[in-house]
Amino acid sequence: MRHPATTVCSAAALLFAATAFSPLVAQQRGASGPVPRTADGKPDLTGVYQASTRRGAWDYDVPSDQPGVPAARPAGDAQPTGARPEPMPFTPEARQRAQEILNRRSVDDPATLCLPQPTPRMTPVALFPVQIVQTPQQVVMLYEYFWQFRVIPMGGKQPDDIEPAYMGNAIGRWEGDTLVVEMVGFKPGLWFGNGLVTSDALKITERFTRIDRDQLNYEAVLEDPKVLTKPYTMRSTLMLREATRLREYSCVENNVDPQRYEKLNPSIFTRTPPGQ
Amino acid sequence: MTLTVAVRSAVALVLVAWLLPAAAHAHHSFGVVYDANQPVTLTGTVTKFEWTNPHSHLFIDVKDNSGKVVSWTLEGYPATVLSRTGWKRDETVKIGDTVTIFGWRARDGSPLAHLRQATLPDGRKLFFGPPAGTGEGAATVR
Q1: Chain A partners of B58 at a C-beta cutoff of 8 Å?
Q2: Does the distance separating the beta carbons of B31 and A269 come in below 8 Å?
Q3: Which residue among B23, B54, B79 sits closest to A9, beta carbon to beta carbon?
Q4: Is residue B89 included in any domain, yes or no?
Q5: Does a structural domain hold residue B53?
Q6: What is the pLDDT of residue B10?
Q7: What is the pTM of this model?
Q8: What does the alpha-carbon distance between residue A120 and residue A2 come to, in Å, rounded to a whole number?
C-alpha cells in the first residue's frame, strides 16, 4: 500500500501530506481523460477512489530484499495540489494535551474502540477505498474504513435540531467545479492524529475537486477556536479505482485491542519526548 | 522449523525508521503493544488463520533449538486490505504450511508480534501488516 508521507510519523501529517510533483513531470506522464459531467453540467464525482498519487489499479507496496522494506517504485503521477502541510496551530493548552497523547503513544485513541471517525481522518487512508455516489439532490459518500457513510444534501441550511455526531452534519454546495461540504454539529473529543482532539465548536469545510478523469483533490479546513488559533488545512489526492469495490469492514468483529490494553502496564509503552 | 529471534542490524533499523512516514492512520497504535526496537524473524507451521477485521491474525508453532514448541500470535492487516494486496483467503496460506515471517515483538515479551512480511512456502513474499509505528504519532507534536 502506498500512503501519504511526511518526515515525521504523526497520523495527521501522514494522512494529509500534500504530495508535490513537478508540473513538467505530470505533463510528461500525460494527463488522464476529461472530467466526467452530469446532465446538469456539474463534475460527476461518482466512483471508487483511493488516497494515492498513482493512476491505475489499486496501489500498494510489495516487499523488497530487505525485510519489511517496500520495493522502490517510480514517483506518483498526481498533479500537484499546491500547498505543503503546516504545523498545527494549537492553543498552548491544546498543544500540551497533544504532547501528553503522543507520550502515551495514542493508547486512548477512540478508534481502538471502533467508534466512528470524522471524515478528514478516514478519507486519506490509502489502505481503504472511498465511494462517492452523486445525484443532483444529494451526494452519498461510503467509507470502507469503519464501514461508515454520510448523505450530503445539496443546498439548504443546517437543521435546527442537530444532535452532536461523530461525523457532524453536512450540507453540500457547488463552487464552480468544486464540491464544498460544510459540517458542524460534532461531538467533542474527536481525534485527528498528531494529538489533535477537537471540541464541540469544530467546523469543517471540505472541498472535492476532480481535476481530470483520475484525480480528485481533497481539502479539509478545520476551525475550532477552543483548540486551534487559526484554521488548519489538510490536503490529499484521491485516485479513481474502477476495478475496486468496497468490502465489509466490521471493526468489532475481532477487535482484541481493548483486552490486550487492559493487561498492559502503562510504563512499558509510555515514552518521554526528546529533550525532556 | 527453527526458532530465530534475530536482532537486525542498525542499518536495517535506520531504514525501517526512515520508512515510518509511509505508514498511515491505523485502527490502533502500533507502539502501545509492539516495540519497533525488537524486530523478529520466525519460521514455523501455520496452525490457524483469523481472516478478520479490524485485524487478521496468523498463528504459527515455532520450535526452538531445544525442541520446545512455542505458539506465536501474529497480527496484521484487516481482511479487506489483505484481499487487495495479494492474499486469497484459504489459498495463499493453508494450515500446516511452513512460513517465515518478519515483524516486531510485543513489548511484554509474550509470543505475540506485529507481522509485517511473510515468506510463503513457494518463496513469495507478501506484506501482512503496515510498517512499525503506525498510528501512534511522532515523539513530539508538530
Answers
A1: none
A2: yes
A3: B23
A4: yes
A5: yes
A6: 34
A7: 0.87
A8: 18
- Assigned domain for A146 exists: yes
What is the domain count for chain A? 1
d(CA A122, CA B25): 8
Dihedral sign for Cα atoms in the order A111, A88, A183, A34: negative
Interface size A-B, in CB pairs within 8 Å, comes to 194
Residue with the three cell numbers 527453527:
B2
Domain that holds residue A109: 11-245
Does a structural domain hold residue B136? no
A76 contacts in chain B (CB < 8 Å): none
- Nearest-Cα distance to chain A for B67, in Å, is 26
Task: Kindly state whether residue B132 falls inside one of the protein's structural domains.
Answer: no
What is the tally of structural domains in chain B?
A: 1
Q: What is the pLDDT of residue B25?
A: 58
CATH code where residue B69 lies: 2.40.50.140
Instruction: Using alpha carbons, select from B91, B89, B61, B82 the residue that is nearest to residue B73.
Output: B61
What CA dihedral angle connects A243, A246, A248 and A252, to 10 degrees?
130
Look up the ipTM and state it.
0.87
> Per the domain annotation, does A82 fall within a domain?
yes
Q: Which domain holds residue B102?
A: 10-127
The 10s digit of each residue's pLDDT in A135-151 is 999 999 999 999 999 99
pLDDT tens sequence across B31-70: 999 999 999 999 999 999 999 999 999 999 999 889 999 9
| pLDDT value, residue A75 | 80
Residues in chain B within 8 Å Cβ distance of A10: 137-138, 141-142
Contacts of B8 in chain A (CB under 8 A): 67
Per-residue pLDDT, averaged over B74-89, amounts to 98
